[in-house]
Structures
1.
Amino acid sequence: MKMINLIVNGKDVVAATVEPRTQLADFLRDTLNLTGTHLGCEHGVCGACTLLIDGVPARSCITLAVACDGASITTIEGMDDDEVMRALRAAFSREHALQCGYCTPGMLASARDVVLRMPDASEQDIRFAMSGNLCRCTGYVGIIKAVQSVIAERREAGVVSPENPRTTLGPVGSGHAQPMASGNTAFAGTTKLVAAPVQRAAAATAPAPVVPAKKAGAPDSGKPLTTLNQSFSIDFPREQVWNFFGRLGDVTTCLPGASLLAPPTETHVEPKLRIKVGPIVAEFEGAADVVRDAANHSGTIYGSARDTKSSSATRGEIRYDLIEEKGGTATRVEVQVGFALTGSLAQFSRSSIVRDIAKRMTDAFAENLRARLSQGGSEVADGSAFHAPAAELNAGALVFSVLRDRIVAFFRSLFGR
């Protein structure tokens, strides 16, 4: 799995996890639910999947998502306020330039590029420039007329200068790539559009990653994050708890059902979370990066994961603050969780039930944390960390427990007991 940062339709998609082989079109459709990008031939021939990468038209069905790390992606959903696109949509409707509409999103993206780059284009120029977009319905006459009419309207309005969005050589979106550092086992990228890159290294001594700051609960990939607040107290000094939280492997495996896919570093961890909901067993695999603030004893975790057996995926961020209690002999852990769940398991993300389940998960995490700290922080004889996973998370049992408690509370209130 690789972690990437994108700007999609003007919104930050931070720390998204994808497989190296995932095409950009599949990532947009399956993970971000941007289904306006259509898949036709899936060989880069028909043009139905055309969208804009850094303002330049590109075939998303043959573009790897990891190759777009740091790029700005604009799909048909993100062009509602584009002046040229509004004119093209009106012209396509007026000139009957679409029938079934399947090719239309890619056709419009390519037509927009023609209008901007070729203000003096002839009919032959337009036909040649649009030859990479295939349509099996219209015969192309209405499409050509629509593009011609928009060019004519802009010429009458005094817009005659060509605009070329391409500013760098090489494949579209490649302007953000940098060579991988020695010993770095992950795809490394930088970006001029996202505040700072997320870098992963195999050695624990590698520089800490800098993750773009983003408030929990802010919109991400078009879907707002559900925000939950939890807290618990443990009878251990804050510095001891802080040091334990610095060992990502131990912290991760305190969560019920969590295990590790690879050895963690000081700032990066790749967890696997097994969840059972009745007969459904989901196994989420993902990655997360951590930024810690030692001065304030706080940290923020940015991560995402995907179920290996379905289209379900989740992304979010967790902020924790450690506060001294009882004169420094105890610590209160305050946690703010922002998450978004998509796919078939999203039906279990109703906030009222999730809040109760989160409370039970927090209690289980706190109990495991107390046990690890009581054992000296889970360090074995040679000083290495011990990452034994906690018990499997049975979400079905949690849901049943929540519903049972609610039914009991309802009848108690009904009969005044």
Note: The longest strand covers residues 280-293.
2.
Amino acid sequence: MSDVFDVIVIGAGPAGENVADRAARGGLSVAVVEKELAGGECSYWACIPSKTLLRPVELAAEVSRVPGLEVAPIDTAAVLGRRDAMVSRYDDGGQVEWLDSVPVTFIRGRGRLAGVRQVRVDGARDADGPLLARHAVVLATGSVPVIPPIEGLAEAEPWTNREATGVKDVPERLVVIGGGVVACEMAQALHRLGAADTTMIVRGDGLLGRVEPFAGELVHRSLTEQGVRILLGRNAVKVERPVAGGEVTVHLDDGSRVVADEILVATGRRAAVDGLGLDTVGLSRPGPVDDSMRVTGVEGGWLYAVGDVNGRNLLTHMGKYQARVCGDVIAARARGDADTLPNMRARADDVGAPQVVFTEPQVCAVGRTEARAREEGFPVRAVEYDLGGVAGASLVAEGYRGRAKAVVDTDRRVLLGVTFAGQGVAEMLHAATIAVTAEVTLDDLWHAVPAFPTISEVWLRLLEAYGM
């Protein structure tokens, strides 16, 4: 094996794979170093398995709202079996085979920076000396869960997203610390799959605090109706688990306590930089990066960072977006070609990043919330519409519950943000993403006619609510 490549990528998750693919398409030799499974967090422990667990919950809810259809009990064993198939039974052979076909050289081991354009791989290759990159090293190591400094929590061996999505035996009693996306999704999935006694401990005054408040309220109502207990405005102050694998007790700041079989911590993530060797190139963290994903402040401009590790956006699809930019721009710079084409600068991270929360009801949003738009000084008017009042919604389900909101820049008459909450709304998000990212004016949106009878007719209702 050669020790010299044009590009070396540390991390073979979705972002790292996409950088490698684009750089290789540009004619460069590429090595990818990965210590775990090729395909990364999303493929095995996050997006894919979590949505596989949530889909039966969603379908059961949909069927229950259509007269004439019988709701069958969820077969937990079958759901977990499908989860295993969707994650390839935690075997990355297919991913490695794809990397080989690109072609990319895949190296199994822990990669770390060892100086300018140098990467050392711990393990079998360690004695062979570092790899050398002619043009670029790309950090794509993702992120890891944050375990808050609560007395006894770490010692209690809490679940994170990995244990929750990889569950083999669903506990009867589950306590969840957190109120964000992972907390809501996994509380709902595990509750419906057998965790009959599920309690969420939420520090804030509502769920899904980064989206419009009505969305979190709808999810809160749904979870509560399903039997999940939600404790808002509470903090865990101490966790006890005297016997490994035994029951866990969570003490709250109001003097109460929750007893469960397992505890899931879903309180955020941080960049995975431990042992990455950043100090060897004068860095303490892999950022900031410019819009070509190049790390600023590194002499020679050879170091790049994509995905969660750079801190710009912790969403898989945005990491892949950054990676496409990065791979293309590295190839152009290596060839001496122009590196300023429109596809070679990332501009969607800040306000064009779409997100879907796959709870039941679904929540999806793109752009700014009303509160953020006002904080940033935009002239704002927001309009909302009850999705249940759209003709297509009554065909989807009896008693359809949902809501849509558009945040408008009144001076330029363009959308600053759009949020939907309701059954099956995720499929409407890309239209909103195009409208927000491309800054389509309201005057033009009047002529984008929604089909009847579909829920997307809410676009017309929002425009009517706003007026000409």
Note: Residues 404 and 452 are 18 Å apart (CA to CA).
3.
Amino acid sequence: MIEPDIKLAQQLFEQLRAESFDGIGITRDTYGAGEQRAHDLMAQTARALGLEVRTDAALNLYMTLPGSDRNAPAVLTGSHLDSVPRGGNYDGAAGVVAGLSVLGGWVAAGLQPHCDVTVMGVRAEESAWFPVSYIGSKSAFGLLPAEALDIRRMDTGISLSEHLRQHGGNPEGIAAGEAYLSADKIRCFLELHIEQGPVLVEEQLEVGVVTGICGSLRYRHAQVFGSYAHSGATPRSHRSDAVVALAEVISRLQQHWANMEAAGHEMTLTFGQVNTDVQQADISKVSGLVNFSIDMRSRSPQALALMDQHLQAAIAQATQTHGVRFELGERTGSKEAEMDAGLRNIMQLAAKELQLSHRELPSGAGHDSALFSNQGIPTAMLFVRNGNGSHNPDEAMDLQDFAGGARVLARVMAAQAGLV
């Protein structure tokens, strides 16, 4: 079996870090300079390898080693190249680098697959910049709602459509639903990714084969309105305290979460943003406003629906008890996805043959693989062990672990592309 070009991978990781370091962490901003530099680096590398390089209306990047039968359904691999603000160097990028390292090894050996094999650099996977899930992959299939193009980036205040135009994209084509990818022309989609939780590290395992990807239910811009009042002069019986009301809701939902886990439900619940109004809140005031967000994730739509019911009930009780008013705002989310059983088996067999310690596990985080799977495309994900979690500057994937994951990926790619 031809080895991936791990030296190339190391060089790419070093260049990505050098071009993305913001003084604290890694920032590759969606449809901004950071993400663009990463795409330019990958495209330049692909051209040096002799690969075909193309982009679509959303500027997703496609780097293809042509097969002997150009009409056969293609094998796709890859991931995203954007990051959260002040994130880590490997989240997303490891999947693109892995794909290029595999093709780099094949090119050096003079191999030609039966079908086209494409490494995809996906745009805009991180919804930290625009509050929409899977902008790049949805656009590739013509599935991004036209109204999403009017959403403004959280830091610049500029619309998605304008950010696209600035970098040479075609928002009109996206709005018209023009699709670059078609499910019937894709044999499979394979995504290597760092694990973003602690399972592989704690169990001292090198790689993990993903069983499925959680869907989400989110309230990004929720609020609770009470009444501002003097902290010393207002007795408890006369308060409408927004902070206390929200704290009660959070406490009740934490207990419901524990009960649901005890009953066998698999899910997570996060209040990622909780803040009072900086213009009005004060140490000597009862708080009249709290802004907050809620993120629920599970592979079970039923579990998400049940927790949403618990949320509504907790809000109703807190409203009555504390005389406040809740506004949850728009509810958004993403659909859960199952990974292909056949591809999972091939991945596990490859890991076993390579003598890599491994296990199956679900993904609590969302990934573009979910979008591919929900188009009916056989899809599989491989996690590589990574210390310190993700979405922070301290991601600590070891290059040796990455090399093991790349070798697993190479075997699955070769089997699907007719090289073995």
Note: Residues 156 and 250 are 32 Å apart (CA to CA).
